[in-house]
Amino acid sequence: MENHQVVIIGAGPGGYRAAFMAADLGLQVTLIDPQANPGGVCLYRGCIPTKALLHLAKVKEEALKAGTWGMEFKEPKIDREKVKQWKESVVSKLTGGLGQLTKARKINYVQGWASFIDSGTLEIKGIGQKAEGKNQEEEISNKIEFEQVIVATGAVPIKLPFIKEFTDRIMNAEIALELKSIPKRLLILGGGYIGMESATIYKALGSEVSLVEALPNIMYTMDQELVGIYMKANKELFAETWFGTRVTAMEEEDGKVVVTLEEVKDDGVEKVKNGKIVKNGKNGKSVKKEFDAVLVSVGMRPNTAGLELEKAGVEVDQRGFIKTDEQGRTNVKNIFAIGDVSGGMLLAHKASYQGRIAAEVIAGQKSVFDARAIPAVVYTSPEIAVAGLSELECQEKNIPYRTVKFPWSANGRAIAMGEPVGLTKLIIEEGTERILGAGIVGSNAGDLISEAVLGIEMAARASDLALTIHPHPTVSETLMGAAELYYGHPVDMAPPRKKS
Amino acid sequence: MKQEIKLPEIADNVVSGFLARILVKVGDVIEKDQSIIEIETDKAATDIPSPIGGKIVDIKVNTGDEVRVGQTIMMVETGENVKDVKNVKNGENVKNVKNGENLNDSPALTSLTSLTSLNTSPPLTALNISPSLNVLVPASPTVRRLARELGLDISRVKGTGPGGRISDDDIKVHAKEVIQSPKTAEFAGYAEVPDFSRWGPVEMQPMSRIRTITAESTVSSWQTIPQVVQFSKADITEIEKFRLESKAVVEKAGGKLTMTAILLKLSAMALKQFPKFNASVDMKNKQVIYKNYINIGIAVDTEQGLLVPVVQEVDKKSLTQLSVELNGIAERARNRKLTSEEMQGGNFTISNLGGIGGTSFTPIVYPNQVAILGVSKSAMEPVFRDGAFVPRNMLPLSLSYDHRLIDGADGARFMVWMCRVLEQPFLTWL
Question: What are the Cα distances from residue A236, in Å, to A208, A239, A326, A463?
Fold first, then answer.
């Protein structure tokens, strides 16, 4: 049996990062993935294609807005096929590039699927096209021995019990990205970030979008103040919304989808969320609605089917995510798991960082996942980005803090861009004046948040941010402005009234 | 209202302890001053009382953990308001801590206490880090990595930057301190051990506090002291007779006249005769420190491990007084009632394994001392004397000494002197 030093199962952002790092550290790496090139869901059917489409949505929005400022464009004509091609060209450019980087690193890339036989052996099935050497495809099914393995198989969308399988009408996010049609009336199930980004895309493409969400608001686990500002700027996004409502049945009839919506009954339990008591006063009424398509984005589950983890003795948690320590190591010493399959926040950049750590650990370095801030971004319009501790977390952890908020209506660039809706807030530890967390809602918030992330990682204090020169005019000045607010002397705002 | 219970100050200069037992469990309703954990520190065990009453909702530590003064050990649900929490946080626990030792002063630790979780897996423990613990230590990712690579627990590093921010230099200063301090527990420069479970079933047990201290001090001694061992045998036929005859007198006074007591007395005399053996070596300042007092440590074998209580001013005490004192010390050692003060300040040590057996051994010099006398089991032996073999009671002695200060000739002289006075104690009168 062939012996492999490091085998990585799954070539998404976590898997290929781990593979590249391990190879750069001098290890022999085998990377297994069903796709012809690395990239995973993120590049093929997730982050990247959505961003390509969201960019189009943004262009349309700006063009429409320009009309009110004296530069009118004609109503955009959407060529679905062409949009699709453009999106696919973005994807293939990036994944092709990754394929070349894989070859350049002499990584043994196997297109196929892996399953455990025991804690030292894998069975690999699939198309035996190797990144190096022969180029012809051949069926392979062989057993290999490994010294170390990193499981990076990601997560897949949750299917609700009444959905047999996802179709062109009852879609998951991946199918929705294929742009097979632009439904006239689209219902989105779940107001998380995938639901919100998909809503933005389909609205721009011309669909009439509605939303059903079991919780009382969209993006309910995020800072609700930021979400509130987003909502104010997006009053027209949805045709209809149903909060505190579940879908209990779904039927495909004559090219239509009939959905049964049921209000979540008042169970009499008061729930505390974001510091507020939520009392559900609904009475469980149910109603039937008709749509042309439905997008189900109610959550993700670990993609472990077919891996046969139990044969290797790898422990998973109640929800099926692989349990690991801060180095990514599972209960089996030579088996690591990173990214979505190991739970926590399901984010590509977190997976990538974990991939790097796991590779370093395998190479004998004393690495550990000790990030203080994992940024999370919702690429809607405006974008919402958070990093570090939230106010709620500070309260839970009993950390004395003060929040400072800088509204974008006081920022020159935001007004000049016609984006006055926005807020930059910093959470600062009282006493040390350290920046513990940040939240931004506004145009390109996702790019802006990085400065706060660096600040948190570097243990910067509010004064460090306040004393750093920021280019004018940019929206990045709102971060400096928020930090200056902590000391009571912002440039672009009236000084806060002194408490008597 | 949830409140934290932190480990209060236990004794002077004690910054951490070894958690021997948890006396309560989650869900228990405890009263103020009720004992909640048992901490082993510096060879003494202490029950820690709760500063507050309430219901225990979380226990943040495990048996076997090293717990620092100021570290959160439990969370207790109480009915009191926020103000009281602040009092507990900044109250007496903090005030008593000495300057420089005030761990709660560092912003790192105050913020870190609320996040304590010490459940780390073996490979992580080997790195001397528990990441969840370090979440709020003010240091950049590069500095954190440096600490990890040096095997240092960054939460113990004092940051000199604004807001207690830790720099590379702070890490290096701390590393130097750790390397130079005799207590190297924190320094994880130890090699990884192989995975023995590959060859058969194994069981992991945390080292007790006593075991750890013994391990660290013997390593420190072994690495810094070039040790020479001098063997000899003393004829104790006459002194053994004297011992048996005088036993009753000492017993009346409440003591037990043992060979250890006699050796203690004679060693004190020997140290006066050979002051180098009562000295310490200070390589840093290239000087020898001669001590004008004679304190001698006695190695005591207890269930918990080796303890070395020190008998003060041995030269000023009679044999009867010493016998009584030794009796008390041994008993307190076995009942774990010795204070850390009672185990400090020795100049020389006696380790008597005669009660167990063996012909000779090579004892290890105690750190910051220069010699140790090892005693094995005495036996009747034929000794060639005046043209014939005669049966004599012979006591094997092993003297380990620090060659940095004591040369072979000195060692031999000391040993010969000891043997002669054991044969003829009256010589000490001369």
Answer: 10, 7, 43, 40
